[in-house]
Amino acid sequence: MGRITALSEPTGPGVRVESGLYEGFEASLYYDPLISKVIAWGDTRGEAILRMRRALSEYRIVGIKTTIPFHLQLMDTTNFIAGQLDTTFVEERFAL
What we know:
This protein is an alpha+beta fold.
């Protein structure tokens, strides 16, 4: 995985980050791959999506690969925005 060399977590209304990350943190192969969780809420689905997009765009984790680009791409799909999802959504729409 790697060592986190720079970190800046998002903040703001309707956004919460749960993590134990810090600059210098060493994420090894034996570490849980869920190193951070970002939660966004809003009065509507659209507001929550906008807040999550902003939060993920502001999140900076340097030194390891993250799934932030994938999640930003996912939230741009029409089906996701409309809430038209099922258990095959990701595998049918994205090359992993």
